[in-house]
Model the fold of this input.
Amino acid sequence: MRRSILFAFALAVGAFAPPLFAQTPQPHLVLVEIQGFAFVPAMIEVAVGDTVVWTNHDFVPHTATADDESWTTPELPVDAAGRVVMQKAGLFTYHCRYHPAMKATILVK
Done:
């Protein structure tokens, strides 16, 4: 009898419990500033699906272009922003098409 009461109690409590859902990580925005002819920060770590946003604070246009040409922003005039969604894992070095000495790295996990 005691077992059936405990079972009925557990069943009743379970009926009112919220359903459990798998937690899916949400994509993030990761911000990179372009200033003084440099990407700041020069190294970032993101997850697949995250969006990296570059904002140009210099007085000349820039881009953020993967060294392997797998992605690029459009030309970013003064105070413009460009974004890229990171689609695959890996270590990506990138540069500005107009100023190749500007370099940075993204680790996509």
Q: What stands out?
A: The first strand starts at residue 29 and ends at 34.
